[in-house]
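During the second half of the funding period, the structural biology subgroup turned its attention to how the target accommodates small molecules. The most pressing case was NAP, which had performed well in the primary screen but for which no bound structure existed. We therefore specified the complex as follows and requested a full 3D prediction, including the ligand pose.
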Amino acid sequence: MLGQKLIHALANSKSFELIATSKGANRCLLTSGYTYRSLDITDENRVEEVFQNVKPDIVIHTAAMTNVDSCEQDHSSCLKMNVDAVGYLVKASEKYQAHLIHLSTDFIFNGTHGPLSEEEKPDPVSFYGHSKLQGEKLVQQSTCRWAIVRTVLVYGVVDGMSRSNIVLWAKDALEKGKSIQVVDDQFRTPTLAEDLAAGCILIAEKGATGIFHISGKDFMCVYDLALRVADFWKLDKSLIRRAKSTDIKQPAQRPPITGFILNKAKVNLRYEPNSFEEGLLILDNQLKIGNH
Ligand SMILES: NC(=O)c1ccc[n+]([C@@H]2O[C@H](COP(=O)([O-])OP(=O)(O)OC[C@H]3O[C@@H](n4cnc5c(N)ncnc54)[C@H](OP(=O)(O)O)[C@@H]3O)[C@@H](O)[C@H]2O)c1
């Protein structure tokens, strides 16, 4: 999701020459204004080969094994992607002196309180969270110029609608008249994918280093998020059933309260995210014109 948003934001840029990579063929509908290369980042030799050819000034590392429950059930694949591959990118960024911008998550925290600043102590409660924290440590120990972008519950429209998220899931179910169970004991600052891409680009433009919390600015529980989605699209709120995390059986534990304090990003980067409803309006327009 973030990778595609970066392509849309940076293709045909006057300031950057964009080389986008992912595993397999390009699935982004926009195919001009940048170059695409197939790259499986768990293949160390391919990583080295691509760096040698491209010699990037800046690397924005958006790929990850992001399905929290799959990570809980398949530790080996999770570690290959979220830790080992980060190591290959760190090594190559050091060798070719690239500015490495690495994506991480609120799931490195235990969720006892929020919203959280960059100074909070990590303490993950899931295997995904552990793996992303290990990835962060590899980046922090590296000698390259690095920035870590932690984010929270990203929503947006992906080309071909190949990936869903909480907003699209709730909208879709309510439109079909299906009732949904939504937890009221998990708190987040949901992030519009375009805002996250803008945050990464600000870091790239400013050559910023260190840890940045980049998310939306509205703090809410997931149940309220679903109500706000229903309000926005004038859908039937009575279909939304309040639930507790313990009611929903999932392999991985989620941190109850996260969400981010954005002061550092606002002051140092001039990062200004949309409100949640502004984000829904952007998404609605994209769905209407089919251009995302
Ligand atoms: N989404 C969220 O709510 C959220 C919240 C907090 C933090 N984050 C972090 O933000 C970053 C971006 O998240 P996202 O939502 O954009 O993730 P995403 O939509 O799941 O995208 C991850 C991409 O990585 C690709 N990938 C998987 N294995 C690969 C490999 N071996 N080589 C190259 N590419 C590979 C995936 O390809 P396939 O499509 O083929 O699988 C997918 O396109 C991640 O670091 C994530 O941990 C996300």
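Two results from this model are relevant to the next phase. The chain has a mean pLDDT of 96. DSSP finds ten helices and twelve strands in the chain.
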